[in-house]
Amino acid sequence: MRVLKELSRQPAALFGLAIVLAVVILALAAPLIAPYSPDEQMFDGLTLEGAPIGPGAQFWLGTDTLGRDLFSRLLYGARTSLVIGIVANGVAVAIGLAIGIAGGYLRGLSGNLIMRFTDLMMAFPALLLAIVLAALLKPSLWIVALVIALVNWVQVARIVYTETRGLSERDFILAERALGAGHGRILFLHILPHLMPTAIVWGTLGIATTVLLEATLSFLGIGVQPPQPSWGNIIFESQSYFQAAPWLVFFPGAVILLTALAFNLVGDALRDILDPTQRGRG
Amino acid sequence: MLAVLARRLVQSVLILLGVAAITFVLLYALPADPARMIAGRSATAATVANIRHELGLDQPLLQQFGTYLSHLLEGNLGRSYAQKTEVATLIAARLPATLTLMVAGIFMELVIGITLGVIAAVARGGAVDRLIMMTAFVGVSAPQFIVALFLLYVFAATLGWFPMSGFGTAAHLVLPATTLGILGAGWYARIVRSAMIDVLNQDYIRTARAKGLSGARIILRHALPNAILPVIAMIGIDIGQFMGGVVVVEAVYGWPGIGQLAWQAIQQVDIPIIMGVTLTSALAIVIGNLAADLIAPAVDPRIRSH
């Protein structure tokens, strides 16, 4: 409750939250709102010369090069982005938590090895790795989600590692251990709850990164495959046409940007609220 | 100092070896088959097996990796499957274009980021500050390819100030460098603003003000040099970010750098080139991080004692 109250005091965070809610509702209600089927290539969706139609009364945001309604495709594309955002980022945060906790809690060789592996992954050109994996595997929604999770856990792991190290030296953990508590009890009852703010912050901020990564992979043609609409592959399909039909690039571009911005705004505000030491100045 | 440097160098080499090992295993495990790719769709199984044998792809994984490593230590990155040329030669031919783009991009980032950060800090709390910070936030959230397409549409297709794509003149460089600049500038603006506010609250700034120095002189001569220190450490890390994103920017602008080389190689399952570019990028990241760690204490005596 306190979190919601403080969130509502920040106009930027409220703006972000409103957009996040709007995207979620539009995605869930896509079949109800969409004026046309996202895959239907309509006879009157192209001009007589076969060019896409600009935004107007019949097709609110215009049509694409195959005569499909752009607004309907964007609505269904929101589902793709959100599913990947939530699944891929959820997996990334879970992996990051597991590895970070293991590295921070297990001292000695095993803990050390885990963190050296994380250092190694930090030196990986992440986007290049994602592109290679996505291109060489047969691309599908779940493969894209998996690829993104595989490159995005590293940052979470580093932060969780630092926090777990600090936590496991605190007096209440030492006392708990002196009383004879097992590892399971310490980890699940004492360390994990303290890491929840971090998990929530990264669970939000990471969705922005994930949405951008999915859009980038799909834009390169190695992400979600058409005809399943994704904001990135709508641009991929129309980029060679974008001088003649700029709306086909600008509308999807704008929703990608707005969605990423919204999750970043909310995540940033949550970080300020949940972690007083990180509170922004000014 | 020398001991630290030596340890960091050994660590860097180990990290590069690790990157090589992971990439090698991943490329080996992925379902894409380079031998079939080279042979073409209509090739018989015997032809494919022959090519596989010629490339040494029928050997056990460990033996393949051993061969690759021993060649790597001699500076030999192997030969491209599709282009039949030394990978080192191909990368060396493309590297100047990528490095030019990187330097220009970082320059744009610094100019935009520091300017906005300083203005925001000086006007802190006001409408200008909020506007700049909001813009910086949008910049941070924007995907590269959308910024690139937007700039192309406005400044190349509509206004015609710059060429659509290609390489060679300074005009070709402006849009790709600005694309990179806009994205990184958001981070720099935030860091500079926060560092600048710290500095402006310090006693020596009050002293400077008390002795009657002009506002501009205080900001540019006394405050900025101190506020800029965290940015210097960021540049090293930025090189890594840049190397990751290079494929996208080069693809949109048709910039003939190693990103394009990698993109082409990925589509042809040309494993030696993919390995070579990944290692080159990882090397850039490692050098960037190393530089950040070494330069920060060199320019900022306060960090040195730690």
Structural features, described:
The complex is a heterodimer of chains A (282) and B (306). With 282 residues, chain A is mainly alpha-helical. Chain A has one domain (69-278): Orthogonal Bundle (MetI-like fold), CATH 1.10.3720. Chain A contains 11 helices and no strands. In chain A, helix 2 (11-28) packs across helix 4. Chain A is elongated. The model of chain A has no long low-confidence stretch (mean pLDDT 87). With 306 residues, chain B is mainly α. Chain B has 2 domains: 2-73, no CATH class; 94-299, MetI-like (MetI-like fold, Orthogonal Bundle), CATH 1.10.3720.10. Chain B has 14 helices and no strands. Chain B starts with a helix and ends with a helix. The model of chain B has no long low-confidence stretch (mean pLDDT 86). Chains A and B meet through helix 5, helix 6, helix 9 and helix 11 of A and helix 1, helix 6, helix 7, helix 8 and helix 11 of B.
Features:
A: mainly alpha; MetI-like fold; 11 helices; elongated; B: 306 residues
